[in-house]
Amino acid sequence: MSTNLFPRVFLKSKEEKEILQGFPWVFDNEISHFKHRIDEKSEWKNEELQECSVEDGKIVEVYTKAGGFLGTGVLNKKSKITVRIFDNQHADKICENLDFYWETKISDSYNLRQEYFTKQDSYRLVFAEADLIPGFICEHFCDEQGRVFLVVQFLSLSCEIFRKQILAALQKVCKPNGIFERSDLSVREKEGLPLVSGWIGREYETKITIIENGIKLDVDLLNGQKTGYFLDQKFNRQVAAKFCKGKRVLDTFTHTGAFGLNAAMAGAKEVISVDISPEAVEIVNHNIQMNHQKKVMKAVCADVFDLLKNYEAENKKFDVIILDPPAFTKSAKMIEKAYGGYKEINLRAMRLLTEGGILITCSCSYFMESSMFCDMIMHAAMDSHKKVQILEKRGAGPDHPVLLGYPKSEYLKCVVCRVI
User: Fold this and answer.
1) Separation between Cα atoms, residue 18 and residue 23, nearest integer Å
2) What is 201-225 written as a DSSP string?
3) Number of continuous H segments (helices) and E segments (strands) in the chain
4) Please, which of 61, 278, 321, 412 could form a disulfide with 349 given CB 3.0 to 4.6 Å?
5) 176 Cβ partners below 8 Å, 6+ apart?
6) Is the pTM of this model over 0.70?
7) Average pLDDT for residues 74-91, to the nearest whole number?
């Protein structure tokens, strides 16, 4: 197929800077016009975005105002992210053999993970834009029986149109026992797509047990948050555990109890893991029992903000406190309120720590940038009349690569502090 049969998207003047740096999105307000034609004998037809007759889901080529080629993407006029670029090759080269193209892309992501993980590990296999497959997430779970289950999320039209090729590539490269789909996030509705959840092909139990850092953890593929389990903190849990031998540990916003269990298995004297969700606490209790840590660890169902206040009033003390809250903001507009929430829990945690105690504090909100997060820690220390030494600044594991030019891929902050 000839390149010039693919519709062309032309940007407004100087809108290409971020794309040249690696940013893979084209927003509706950055587009100057479209050019397309039916066949090689037809004239090019110019259209504005509002009147564009090119169908959503079509592969398009993106150009600068002056006509410089930038990349190939997928069009979706229903979304403010009107084009998601997935390659810097021309479209005809990609479409010569789509099955081979997607098998190569999935293999590339898989092979990268083999530098850090084995088939027996659980990890993120594809991290959307950061792995150059916009809108597509794939988790690789290995249960205690050695079975491999993939959990996939098709979160944008740009990957939905390649569903058949991507699933075939995953089957060929990973040879999983089963694939479970969790395309049930509201972001799909913004893309004009229905919410979908369930097994693709053969069905299994949706509750599995994985082993991470030598610890057994139950994962609920159907009802667990997002893809069932947060794999991005695996190595941060190992680091936190190093400080916990013989110590009293408070593990907040615990979800499955993973941070607390790492602490307990490392020899902590006492671990209290807290979550506001009764369902989460039930899972934590089960995980405690599976790992034979009932003598050391207990789960508490409570609002962390209220519990920290109560512990302060009771003058309770801990040697290590872990703060791993959900994103307090998913938009730039709410960042000030989120800053206040992060500051409050960090301030109160500092007051609960023993002299020289360790605070492991996290944020998974992209909008809370690293410099702002450290600024918040500093002001929390000031207000709690403490001094803080930052021992480590960490992020997500290597299965969550950061794509330069796409800052949203660098979302997780994990700061290890000594409070004096």
Assistant:
1) 5
2) SS---SEEEEEETTEEEEEETTTSS
3) 12, 21
4) 321
5) 148, 149, 150, 170
6) yes
7) 96
